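Re: weekly structure request thread

Next one in the queue (118 aa):
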Amino acid sequence: QVQLVESGGGLVQAGGSLRLSCAASGDITSINIMAWYRQAPGKQRDMVASMSTGASTTYADSVKGRFTISRDNAQNTVFLQMNSLRPEDTAVYYCYVHARTTWWNIYWGQGTQVTVSS
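Done, posted below.
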């Protein structure tokens, strides 16, 4: 099995910064995509940023130029640096990992709340 432990959420004023971390552990033999999604109340869960093993990145248009995804492959950890935060960034942020143990599967973190006050 794979466990994902997220940290780094919290309350910040508009214009501030936060850094999220997600560490994957367990019987992992390989990881492909690591990503962050978010879900605001009453809305669907949307992709924020993703990164492949080869360091190819994808960002939602709403966060381009403000958020940066990175990963430490040796530690099976993915980060999300969030700058210039806006109230509309308020959501629960979920870590997403496409990993192989015996076979490939998708794993989700428990979610961490990010609240941006105006």
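The first strand starts at residue 2 and ends at 7. DSSP finds no helices and eleven strands in the chain.
Next request, please.
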